[in-house]
Fold this protein.
Amino acid sequence: MAQLKVTQVRSVIDRPRDQKRTVRALGLHRINDSVLKDDRPEIRGMIAKVQHLVRVEEVERAQEERRT
């Protein structure tokens, strides 16, 4: 199963509360923070809601296991 690397690229200042909460729920705190999330429909929906604030890259799980 693939994972998604989600990186915050824009600030949440002056954004609606629901967008701020969505970015926070993804585990992002500040610009250039990145998190790995499983590629699931719930996560895709959250990303779609804040797509203008984040950058998404697909990462294969095998690549990630080799790095650790």
